Q: What sequence folds into this?
């Protein structure tokens, strides 16, 4: 089955710096890659996603890139702010039957003022 | 439109007790699922349902039962609680087929088994 690895497990940056979180997946049939942000004690919330027919997607300060050949995708956050501090999860899914999301283990991002 | 509603939010159980985590969604979503979240392990799928009357196992189904008698409700039952089931549980729903259908999570249920 699918396996998703996520790195780093923790990431500390200064406010205004960029942050990059990387994930690799094992199943070449996976074709949907969402990113979730989870604040302390809250539910995971979708912040951006990308499908396998697209190489890059951007939404204001966040962007996601996908390299299907290498089977990895990355989350990029520019001009980080303290409110970006949270745990970020990547996930991968195939478009066959039930959409079974397989999650990475999470990255704790800390943005210091 | 409340989205995905889970109850209870917090629960402490003794080993061997049983309980049911309730989940309801008001978005008429076909697909519902239960995940557990443990430190350093992300979210892992316990059970899922693709429609009323249909359920199936995820990655970590042992010790849990589910049923889906209506489209709206998807309760998770712990048959005989064990300390290893101490975790945060999230119910989720989505509208159906298609690679881009957003999965919506409930607010979570914090369960401690002593």
A:
């Amino acid at each position: 089955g699918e396996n998703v690895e996520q790195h780093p497990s923790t990431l500390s940056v200064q406010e205004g710096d960029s942050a990059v979180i990387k994930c690799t997946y094992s199943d070449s049939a996976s074709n949907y890659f969402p990113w979730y942000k989870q604040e302390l004690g809250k539910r995971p919330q979708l912040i951006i996603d990308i499908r396998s027919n697209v190489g890059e997607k951007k939404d204001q300060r966040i962007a996601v890139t996908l390299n299907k050949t290498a089977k990895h995708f990355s989350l990029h956050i520019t001009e980080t702010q303290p409110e970006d501090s949270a745990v970020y999860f990547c996930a991968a899914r195939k478009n066959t039957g039930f959409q079974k999301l397989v999650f990475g283990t999470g990255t704790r991002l800390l943005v210091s003022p | 439109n409340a989205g995905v509603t889970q109850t209870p939010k917090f629960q402490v159980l003794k080993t061997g007790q049983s309980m049911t985590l309730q989940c309801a969604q008001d978005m008429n979503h076909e697909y519902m699922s239960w995940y557990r979240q443990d430190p350093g392990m992300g979210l892992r799928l316990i059970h899922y349902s693709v429609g009323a009357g249909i359920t199936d196992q995820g990655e970590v189904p042992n010790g849990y039962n589910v049923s889906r008698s209506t489209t709206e409700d998807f309760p998770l039952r712990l048959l005989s609680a064990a300390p290893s089931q101490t975790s945060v549980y999230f119910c989720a729903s989505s509208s159906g087929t298609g690679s881009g259908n957003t999965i919506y999570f409930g607010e979570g249920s914090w369960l401690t088994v002593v």
Q: What stands out?
A: Chain B is about 0% helix and 50% strand. Chain B has a mean pLDDT of 92. The interface with chain A takes residues 31, 40-45, 48, 50, 56, 58, 90, 94, 97-103, 105-108 of chain B (CB under 8 Å). The radius of gyration of chain B is 13 Å.
